Each structure stands twice: as C-alpha cells, then as structure tokens.
Predict the structure.
Amino acid sequence: MNYKYRVVVVGMGKRGMHHALAFQTNGRFEVAGICDIDPVRLDAAAARLSDCVKGTDALQVASVIKPDVFCFCTLPNLRSEMIRIGIECGARLIAFEKPVALNSREGMKIRKMLTASSVKAVVSHQQRYGEHYRKVREIIDSGALGRVHTVYGTATAWMMHNLSHLIDYMRWYNGNAEACWVMGQAAGGGKLSDLHPSPDYIAGFIHFANDVRGVVECGAGAPDVPEVDYWWRKCRIGVQGTDGFAEVLTAGGWRAATKTGAMSGGGCMNYDLDMPPYIQDIADWLDDDQKVHPCNFESAYAGFEIMMALCRSAVDGGQVVLPLSDAADEIELLRAYLAGRKVLPSTPANAKEYLRAEANVVGAAS
C-alpha cells in the first residue's frame, strides 16, 4: 500500500522521541504534528523530524492535523484527557504508554470511551519484541516445557513503572488465559508520592482459568537479578512446566533447561530494535482489522485489572475476583492503608532507592 498514515505525537521526552522517530522511519507513516508543553523540548524535537505542525496544546494540534494515529507519551495522570482528544480528533488508532491508568475508576472510563468510539488502541508493552523474549515464547510453543503450571515475574523498580510489563509478558507466556482471582500484599508508601505513584513493594498470586498459577513481585522487596548490572532493568519473567523451565532477563538474555539439556542465549532491551516491529504492527492492524496488534488495549486492560486487583487485595485482604465489577481509586486506598508502614528492602540497592524515598516523605511531612 502507498498510503501513509498521518501521526500526531504528544509528549516529546525520551519515550515520545522513540515513538516519533520510529514512526518517521517506517515508510507507512508521516509524523504530521508534535506537541509538548515545554517549548524548548518541542523545538529540539522538531529539529530532528521532518516538516510538521508543532504546538503546546494537544487538542489544537490534533484538530489541525486530524491524524490517523494519535500517540501520546505523557505523565500517567493525563490518560483519560488524552484518550478523549484522540477520539475527538477522529483518529483511527490511539497509541499510548503504560500504565493504562492510575486506578480502576479511570481505567474503566477509558475502556468505556474506546468501546463507544470503536477507535483502536495499543499500549506500549514493546519489550515483547526483543529476541530474548521471543525465544522464551518459542520454547513454550515447542512443547519442550511439558505442561506449563507456573508463570512468574519480578522487578526491583516500582509498580507503575514495571508491574504492567511483568503481567503482560506473564499473560503472553500463558497464552493470554483469563485471570479468575488474585491475592496480594503491599508494604511501604514512599513511592506513592512519585509521578508514577506506587507502593514500595507489592507481591501476590494470580490464578488463571487454565489452572496456571502466576507469582509476581515488584519493588523494594523483590529479589535481586545479579546477572543484570543496571538496576532499572533487574527484571525476570519465566515459565515452569512439568519438563523444564525457561526465563528471560530484561537486560540479560534468556535461559532454559528441558529434558534435552540446558541452553541460553543473549538479548537486551533495546528501543532501536523493539520499536520498529511494534510500529509495523500498528500499520498492519490499520490495514487489516484481522491483524490485531499484540499490544492491543483489551489485552493491556486485562493485565491492568490484575494489577488493580492486587492493590485491592493488599488493602482489604483475601482473594479478589476478576474481572472487576466496581470502580475504585486503588492508589488512594493504598495511601491510607500504608501510612506509617515501612518497607523492608531485599538488597542494598533497593534500600538506597526506597528508604531514601520514605525519608523524603517523612521530611516533607515534618
């Protein structure tokens, strides 16, 4: 096809530029407009892109361009506002960063807006395109692990940054089976003051409809991944079956052990490699409704509900049934529940990050 889809990108920070440059490099797209509230950053971005409309007001830029794709990489407190702009400007597809929302109240609102408008949407869980992530899926699909019974994920960074990724890839490795219930715990409120507000540590269990059990830990109490030096990428996602296991490390390749022996390989999170196929799948879905994007909103929303259910379980205790039937502000619930409850970090590196955050909160309050 010769038609180029017109794109508006809002938020020209690091992730916004990753998206804009990946769209521009792909021959199926034209970056027709960009937006950022910081004029200096906006000008710097415009200098790296071809001729495009630029402005500090997202609605104004989108109304002028009327894009096929409305992409935003803004802070997470602006999700529903940006979704509304994407729908109102007539976009056929909205692409945005995780998390889906900061609480289930807004998440449900966003889902209702997208369903009513029939606008397609994707959420940027693009790490799955990494060769090491795909190798683990290949091993699962080969049957070498036997009957899969457990999927797991750990990350030392906090929930709103990493738990969305962990759950998405755990679900992918489990064939996107529906979750029936979760049970979780949380500790520490230092990071609730962050722009990505989160408990310092959250962990729990997920029971999937195919009887696979999910185990997840995110934050200060999560175990070290000593094979990875860079703290932000100390993430491990894996699968256990009756005949072996396979796991991926975000910045440390993959490894597996099956009846035929042990094996391993390289791979590292790399936007330059992961973004192009993510963007191409957007073009393919716009071309053909049957080629649903792997990072489609409904899949991301299923993972988002798991995350919010873990938060509810941490506050209320016991098991939380999925899908969620009522809306809530889980972050505010956690804020009240975790007040005065300090986290116990699992590593010195975690202590440096999270105890400093709690000290800052105490200092601000005093």
Observations:
- Residues 361-366 have pLDDT under 50 and may be disordered.
- The chain has eleven helices and 15 strands.
